[in-house]
């Protein structure tokens, strides 16, 4: 009672005055010290206990000591405790082994955590979950996936925590089918997801363009929090479904839930991606009326890009000049993008100068400026930008696109010939290009592309990485399969045009997730409205 009320001195006085103390008493006192932010005091108390009883300490008390080491973040102290466990043969205690795994995980010692896990004679689902969480936390997605497969092959029933952990892994690796199968397994066993798991599932479906599935999960959630709403609103926005995002935002307000900065960013992004200028202005104005949600730089960047998308460059620049803080790189970047699209060289040069001063090592800023000069026929200025890149030791790295087919990732680079099916891929791509030319496709000229280095501009531009990935997808999947390609660079204009024509010819849907947004191509149109 005294520990729960924060009366540490009084609790210690009672503890010290006890004529005899059980191990439960020692554990309670140690736990109270840890909860009060004094893990060193808890370890000192454990040392006293160890001197009294030696190796006869109960495993549950050692668990509390491991908690103290975890809070302290000391791998050295943790290894000493681990030695005590090994010497006294306490490995059979599931709680203690899981506590050690958690301790090594939080100390960044994944190899030691795995050694404890592998040494357990019996592994409960909690032990499996602890090790999975360790891999997931440290970004070891492949290792987590391998362990998950071992778990399933061993007949261990996954629970809600397993699913919530693996959702992050599936999301990173783009394994949408794995997530669906795991979710179906939970439903079959009658195990409902908690709010964290459901929200993670909504977020996963949104990230991979499955908006109907995301909405179905959201509607069936018994309890929702603001994070759940934000995930769905953001998903609608990124996939060009601005009207639905705004409807969800209005529904959120109607239910009496107060939006936060993330909510406003999600709905402003939706307006930006869908070109809803007046709605964007209205929502931005709502933010300014509430002291708790005053617009930040990221919200200004959205509005700037929204104005820029509609060619209202004066209003976009005015937002930068009127901002109540020093404009950020994101704000200048939004103006540079708009100036590039609408070929306003004066504003573009101004924005580029500000960006290059803020981020002199960021290659993409130079690429945007290069594109602008090349498209305007200013070869002298373009050459100066290339010289600046070389002088600063920067280079345009060859970009990569990848597609997952039958649970395996296939990566492609510009003019890539490493894939075992290269000859088939190139034949398919050449055939597609012939077909789309008959429909009116004309290649874009004068654009520096992220796949191609400046010295290679005069070589063929038809074999960009995303085109190779799509061609491979077409020859490797059924006619009804939607192709999903991911790439780290911005989709070039010519590839964007090609994808629209390809969907007309093949009647396939193509979803490309590039460095800025999702592009949903269907029957010759794209969800971005040709602005990205």
From TrEMBL:
Cite the DYW domain residue spans from the record.
440-532
What keywords would UniProt list here? Repeat, Transit peptide
Q: Which InterPro entries match?
A: DYW_dom, E_motif, PPR_At4g14850-like_plant, PPR_rpt, TPR-like_helical_dom_sf
- Spell out the Gene3D superfamilies in the cross-references: Tetratricopeptide repeat domain (1.25.40.10)
PPR repeats span 93-123, 124-158, 159-193, 225-259
GO MF term set:
RNA binding; zinc ion binding
Q: Which GO terms describe its biological process?
A: RNA modification
The family this protein is said to belong to: Belongs to the PPR family. PCMP-H subfamily.
Question: What is this protein identified as?
Answer: DYW domain-containing protein
Query: What organism does this protein naturally occur in?
Result: Oryza nivara
Lineage runs: Eukaryota, Viridiplantae, Streptophyta, Embryophyta, Tracheophyta
